[in-house]
């Protein structure tokens, strides 16, 4: 006789037939079932010559070539026992594989219930128990398909508000006839769903070219939350570590602070006059160093003029951030006019105001000094309100306030002089309000200049800005005259190279990479600066395995979801671009090897629910563990950017290329707008 394997105890033909000689039941199973262990709970029952043999008797139950041996599956309540047995005991015939493996695998983060139809948000199919018979249909009836492999959710790469669910489902044994009108999602015909697509595979047809047939393992540790949103990444987000100081001085690659303090309500402790702990070598910091611009209007643009623009190394089309009135604008340089040196004229003499004594102090942080300078019909206000430390710092502060006037402050043998620095001279007198004695002494001298003939005055560098691109809508609205604002590379990010007390040397970062062409800051001191680091707590979610411990994967995917969108808001409540930074790390499990990092940034101003799918292809298949974190502060400045780790899945290397005797359907359902 033979050993026959049946799909159930219902009447029908066996799936497999095996010849055998003199042996025992346990001996035959040990020889033919890979990694068979007698001490396991087995999802099969065995009848010999019509009598059921319990597993405890398999060891000494002898069978001969004339014995009638029949093996049936036992559908346990949860299917977990069968899954464990099948994981180590795949039968040799393709038909038996269909019985055990066409039942649904882990559905990841999706719930399911037997007898329910496909449904949106997310789409679902049945999860049949391992060992269940595959349906056979006679006549016309309504079917509720079963998963063949785990369904996969991915966010659209071009429109993150769209999520698609891909699945491979089993219709049943044999061939089926139906039309588009017969297919429904819930009670909705698929013809009414523009985001629905499907492909039918007849019995035995190859599915290897369909991505939906790939065998993905979805981690229940990531996607198994009751809300469905995933793991909240707020706990991994670092906090901003703002600099608290009286003033900031920049020059070249150097950034120095005067009057440093920590935010601990104690101005006498030893951590004063020291940079925060987050300001260390290699850290990324944000530095906003405003200056005085001379603003005018031309052709619908605000023209921003300052020779300090050279420090950003500008070019047409450069993405920049402009900060004015505590509002950040993400713009592009539409036009760029470099500064031009004066062409000297003939004759003439410079107008000037000469101090009668050296400055008695450079520190105006507690006792400020303000005066006006009028030249060629325009008045410029000079406010000394910081500790400028040295004579050069004081002279630079006065010159900065006179931006666009054609005048400059100079150090003349330890005294301050305001004058026309270059020919051609305009001629006339510099008039001022009462000058502070601490800077100019008690009797400063005013010298009237005489005009030169010929030559041309210096041209101050200037830019105009636009939205979205260099050719976009013109940016306007900054009032004319002298304005304090900042124009710099997008994001204001710098990397710390060295730290020495209250001074740091930095490199400019563009898109996370060091910009070797950056010329450095133009020298100046200011109190309206902004400087902050990231107090990185190095907190991670995970690690979690991307596939089961007895499997390997050749790639894995991570879903990040933002139920409230990604959007920032300015001081007036208007939407502005918000940046979210993230990091994924992975390594081979239990290898002790270092982590491999993948970082990225999402920049949007969208208040709708959305998400992103990140795919990592491994150089070699393995059992990998994955962890994730957020790299910038969450929710700052009233931003909507709550971030969740919604899914982790690994693609298993092994999967069937076809399924004998079974009709399959590859389905893709769009669930965007219902996240």
Automatic annotation (TrEMBL):
Residues 218-230 have a biased composition (Low complexity). GO terms for molecular function: kinase activity. Residues 209-232 are annotated as: Disordered. The keyword Iron-sulfur does not apply. Residues 550-650 form the Tip attachment protein J HDII-ins2 domain. The keyword Transport does not apply. Keywords: Kinase, Transferase. InterPro entries: GpJ_HDII-ins2. It comes from the Bacteria. This is Kinase. It comes from Erwinia typographi. The lineage of its organism: Bacteria, Pseudomonadati, Pseudomonadota, Gammaproteobacteria, Enterobacterales.
């Amino acid at each position: 006789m033979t050993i026959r394997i049946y799909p159930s105890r219902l009447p029908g033909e066996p799936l497999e037939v095996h010849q055998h000689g003199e042996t025992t039941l346990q001996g035959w199973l040990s020889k033919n079932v890979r990694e068979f262990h007698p001490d396991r709970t087995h999802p099969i029952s065995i009848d010999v010559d019509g009598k059921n043999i319990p597993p405890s008797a398999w060891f000494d139950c002898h069978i001969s070539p004339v014995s009638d041996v029949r093996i049936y599956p036992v559908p346990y309540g949860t299917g977990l026992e069968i899954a464990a047995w099948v994981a180590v005991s795949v039968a040799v015939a393709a038909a038996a594989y269909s019985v055990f493996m066409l039942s649904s695998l882990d559905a990841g983060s999706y719930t399911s219930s037997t007898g329910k139809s496909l449904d949106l948000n997310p789409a679902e199919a049945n999860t049949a128990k391992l060992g269940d018979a595959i349906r056979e249909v006679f006549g016309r009836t309504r079917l509720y398909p079963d998963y063949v492999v785990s369904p996969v959710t991915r966010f659209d790469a071009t429109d993150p508000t769209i999520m698609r669910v891909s699945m491979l489902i089993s219709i049943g044994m044999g061939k089926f006839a139906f039309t588009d009108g017969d297919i429904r999602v819930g009670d909705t015909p698929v013809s009414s769903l523009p985001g629905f697509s499907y492909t039918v595979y007849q019995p035995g047809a190859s599915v290897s070219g369909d991505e939906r047939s790939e065998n993905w393992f979805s981690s229940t540790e990531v996607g198994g939350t009751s809300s469905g949103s995933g793991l909240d990444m707020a706990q991994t987000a670092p906090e901003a570590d703002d600099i608290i100081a009286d003033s900031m001085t920049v020059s070249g690659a150097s950034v120095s602070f005067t009057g440093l303090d920590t935010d601990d309500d104690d101005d006498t402790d030893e951590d004063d006059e020291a940079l925060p702990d987050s300001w260390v070598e290699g850290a990324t910091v944000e530095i906003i160093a405003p200056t005085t611009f001379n603003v005018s209007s031309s052709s619908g643009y605000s023209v921003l003029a300052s020779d300090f623009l050279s420090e950003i190394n500008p070019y047409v089309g450069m993405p920049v951030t402009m900060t004015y009135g505590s509002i950040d604008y993400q713009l592009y340089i539409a036009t760029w006019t470099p500064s031009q040196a004066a062409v000297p004229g003939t004759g003439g003499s410079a107008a000037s105001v000469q101090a009668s004594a050296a400055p008695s102090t450079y520190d105006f942080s507690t006792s400020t000094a303000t005066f006006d300078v009028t030249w060629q019909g325009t008045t410029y206000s000079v406010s000394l309100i910081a500790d400028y430390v040295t004579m050069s710092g004081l002279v630079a502060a006065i010159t900065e306030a006179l931006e666009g006037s054609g005048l400059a402050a100079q150090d003349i043998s330890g005294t301050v002089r305001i004058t026309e620095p270059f020919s051609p001279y305009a001629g006339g007198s510099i008039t001022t309000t009462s000058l502070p004695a601490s800077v100019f002494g008690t009797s400063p001298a005013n010298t009237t200049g005489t005009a030169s003939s010929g030559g041309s005055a210096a041209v101050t560098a200037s830019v105009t800005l636009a939205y979205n691109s260099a050719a976009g809508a013109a940016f306007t609205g900054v009032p004319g005259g002298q304005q304090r604002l900042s124009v710099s590379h997008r994001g204001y990010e710098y990397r710390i190279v060295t730290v020495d007390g209250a001074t740091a040397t930095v490199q400019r970062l563009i898109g996370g990479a060091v910009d070797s062409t950056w010329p450095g800051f133009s020298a100046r001191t200011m109190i309206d600066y902004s400087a902050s680091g990231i107090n990185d707590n190095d907190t991670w979610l995970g690690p979690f395995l991307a596939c089961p411990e007895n499997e390997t994967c050749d790639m894995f995917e991570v879903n990040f979801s933002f139920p409230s969108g990604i959007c920032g808001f300015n001081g007036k409540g208007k939407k502005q671009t918000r940046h979210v930074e993230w990091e994924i790390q992975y390594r081979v499990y239990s290898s002790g090897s270092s982590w491999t990092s993948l970082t990225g940034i999402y920049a949007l101003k969208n208040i709708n629910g959305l998400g992103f799918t990140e795919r990592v292809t491994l150089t070699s298949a393995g059992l990998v563990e994955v962890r994730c974190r957020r790299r910038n502060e969450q929710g700052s400045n009233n931003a909507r950017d709550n971030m969740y780790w919604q899914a982790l899945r690994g693609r298993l290397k092994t999967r069937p290329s076809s399924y004998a005797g079974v009709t399959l359907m590859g389905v893709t359902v769009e669930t965007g707008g219902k996240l």
